[in-house]
Amino acid sequence: MLAMVAALTAGRPVGVPAPVRTRLESPNADQLPALTVYQGREIVSPMHEPRDGRKTRGVVVRRALDVNVEVLAIAEAGAATPADAAADPTMAWVVKSLAAAGTFSGLAHDAPDEVGTVFAYEAKEVSFVRAIMTFRIEFSTLTVDAEALK
Amino acid sequence: MSGIFGETDISAMLTDLLAADGAVEVTLGSTTVTGLFDRDAVEIFGVDMATTISEELVVHVKAGGLPGLVSGVDVTVDGAVHRVTKVLPYGDGAMLRIALAR
Lengths: 150, 102
Description:
Chain A is an alpha+beta fold. Helix content of chain A is about 15%, strand content about 45%.
């Protein structure tokens, strides 16, 4: 997560907000756009099928962590940019920067795999768009120590 | 007095409120009526992360007073131009609830 936030922070273009890890505060419209990185779901699976008569998962497990990147943006009144396009510059940066980050210096097996994006819209005082982009990151650790990368 | 106000009662009350600075002028095209303006905080989104705080801008006017009032048109409320995002009947339908965007 720290490596992802660092990748999204360094060299970001003008207009792309600084990422925040796991936002628990509620922003107001005048604080947008906002970019938040948070963990979604982690799937843990054995590296190999268990042998007959054994319950162990083995020494090493494979982890697939779905990390969500939430982009919040508004379409200003009278602006030429509609709500659905207001998040585009930040979303484009997210894809580029995470692809460029690769394996995060060997922390992951591969570059983040972009799974998909869910969009939502609200029309209140201004028009809002929220895009939740999901990236899957695969890595391996000791079965008994999730911090011991393998 | 009946529990349901008639058109004359509503007009009189809005006029009194405007005089007391408790109402605003609402203009669409060449027509100006009196309305009641409200600004309420609302929370939106927030499935996984915390909600986003917005404001709901609403003005109530007497039904039938603003010809051409539909979603998407611009109205001037208390001197500021807003876009109409929703037009809903309010109460028994004698008044309208108009949702606005800046």
